[in-house]
Amino acid sequence: MKVTTIIAALLSVAVVDAQNNAQCRKLGLPCGATKTVAYIVKKGDTLTHIAHDIYKRKVGICDIAYTNHIGKNPNLIYEDQTLLIPTNCRTIDDSSCL
């Protein structure tokens, strides 16, 4: 009985996790993010600085670039630009956009 309960619990977690990932993909959020926060770019900022120093490597450079539809040069950002930063990332992408 306990084994059946444990298996059922694990399966329900897997189903919920898959549903959350699908919902985030529909929202266009990378890295398994569940929401975003706004960040206003300051003079001298780069996506590397924002992802690694400000957000302590809890989000990847390419996760930010993808969320904000930043094209071929992921460090082409402007002072006073508002970026949406994905939060609660499960995986970090620092390389696919470089």
Automatic annotation (TrEMBL):
Whether Signal counts among this entry's keywords is: yes
State the superkingdom.
Eukaryota
Per UniProt, the keywords (alphabetical) are: Signal
Signal peptide position in this chain? 1-18
- Every LysM domain range: 37-85
Q: What PROSITE patterns does the record tag this protein with?
A: LYSM
CDD domains xrefs = LysM
UniProt-recorded name of the protein = LysM domain-containing protein
Write down the species. Answer: Zymoseptoria brevis
